[in-house]
Amino acid sequence: MTNPRNIVIALSGLHGVGKTTQAKKIAKFFGLRHVSGGMIFRGLAGSKNLSLLSLSEMAENSDKIDRSIDGAMVEEGKKGDVVVDSMLSVWFLEGIANIKIFLTIPDNVRIERIAKRDDKSYQEAYNETLGRESSEINRFKRYYNITLDDVKNVCDLVLSIQGLNEDEVFSILKYYIQIRLSNLGQ
Question: Domain limits at 175?
Fold first, then answer.
């Protein structure tokens, strides 16, 4: 497929829903760049030799970490021709993104995916993920005065992917994006 001009797709959802997996597939199919807030966060944690939970706890004391990551996503969105994935990308790219999607799946499925991906026990993944998400949700409210419901409310599509495999989710997203781009004249 040819590269559409100045397309910005924002993909959000909680950890473990498959945002980055789907964003990579979307970017490849549509010939776009891919930027992941989660990968930026992981890279920052690794560079500081901290766990994800430890960096989340550090971010509770200052908005500098969150604002830096969120600002980087906005700058990438302004460049265009990109798929940006993070918990809040649809919110921060609301006035920039052509298409805003939020993925959902039950917590137990998310935690199982994270445990498998990170080679951790279910309990370890559960504790780390829910601890990190609690920290993030509190920071969203404190730093930006938003909730996950606010994030979902700016989306063009909120999709439950329960019972769907990775390829089925991609097929739905690809079809939806093609329709939206067609309607936008892209």
Answer: 8-183
